[in-house]
């Protein structure tokens, strides 16, 4: 089976895919896997590089890591949406929370996956028809996770301003910084 045969299963004629992640080994593996599924893959390792590639040639598909070395992946999602509204964008993150997922969807992302996501998960998210519903979670969130989600929601409402978020949560700024630096609880 050739890449043209595989690409025939993708909707539309433009199969350009921009992968944005600062984890080089993961980026390389995902790029190879997506090429084998029929995508014409381009990669970027920073917000600056990704935004430049989006301005030059906006892709039909994009997979963007939330936290990059030089900024936030949501900035890349915004740049994509400005240049091409029909781009199917998926956010990947190791720091998943409801507030950033909502923000990503409002900016135009079609899905939000937690790392480690494999190529099959990414492909399914990119090609999923919008009418399908996700299955409800088997395990409800823990109390620690609910607290984490609330902090993240307030943090996003304060436009990622740590001092303002700490004031609104009646929390010391350094305590909040430590909480934000950790991974989300299960």
TrEMBL record:
<feature type="domain" description="Response regulatory">
    <location>
        <begin position="16"/>
        <end position="130"/>
    </location>
</feature>
<keyword id="KW-0238">DNA-binding</keyword>
<keyword id="KW-0902">Two-component regulatory system</keyword>
<dbReference type="InterPro" id="IPR001789">
    <property type="entry name" value="Sig_transdc_resp-reg_receiver"/>
</dbReference>
<dbReference type="GO" id="GO:0000160">
    <property type="term" value="P:phosphorelay signal transduction system"/>
</dbReference>
<dbReference type="GO" id="GO:0003677">
    <property type="term" value="F:DNA binding"/>
</dbReference>
<protein>
    <recommendedName>
        <fullName>Acid tolerance regulatory protein ActR</fullName>
    </recommendedName>
</protein>
<dbReference type="Pfam" id="PF00072">
    <property type="entry name" value="Response_reg"/>
</dbReference>
<keyword id="KW-0805">Transcription regulation</keyword>
<keyword id="KW-0597">Phosphoprotein</keyword>
<feature type="modified residue" description="4-aspartylphosphate">
    <location>
        <position position="65"/>
    </location>
</feature>
<dbReference type="InterPro" id="IPR050595">
    <property type="entry name" value="Bact_response_regulator"/>
</dbReference>
<dbReference type="InterPro" id="IPR011006">
    <property type="entry name" value="CheY-like_superfamily"/>
</dbReference>
<comment type="function">
    <text>Member of the two-component regulatory system ActS/ActR acting in acid tolerance. These data implicate that a two-component sensor may be involved in pH sensing and/or response.</text>
</comment>
<keyword id="KW-0804">Transcription</keyword>
<dbReference type="InterPro" id="IPR047772">
    <property type="entry name" value="ActR_PrrA_rreg"/>
</dbReference>
């Amino acid at each position: 089976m050739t890449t043209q045969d595989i690409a025939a299963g993708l909707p539309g004629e433009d199969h350009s895919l921009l992968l944005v992640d600062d984890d080089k080994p993961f980026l390389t593996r995902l790029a190879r896997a997506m090429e084998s599924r029929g995508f014409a893959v381009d990669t970027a390792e920073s917000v600056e590089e990704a935004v430049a590639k989006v301005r030059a040639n906006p892709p039909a598909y994009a997979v963007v890591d939330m936290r990059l070395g030089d900024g936030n992946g949501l900035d890349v999602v915004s740049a994509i949406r400005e240049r091409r509204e029909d781009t199917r964008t998926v956010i990947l993150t190791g720091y998943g929370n409801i507030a950033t997922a909502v923000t990503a969807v409002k900016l135009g992302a079609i899905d939000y996956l937690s790392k480690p996501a494999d190529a099959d998960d990414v492909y399914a998210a990119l090609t999923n028809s919008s009418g399908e519903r996700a299955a409800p979670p088997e395990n409800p969130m823990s109390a620690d996770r609910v607290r984490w989600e609330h902090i993240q929601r307030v943090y996003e409402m304060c436009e990622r301003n740590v001092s303002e978020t700490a004031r609104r949560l009646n929390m010391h700024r350094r305590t909040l910084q430590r909480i934000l630096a950790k991974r989300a609880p299960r």
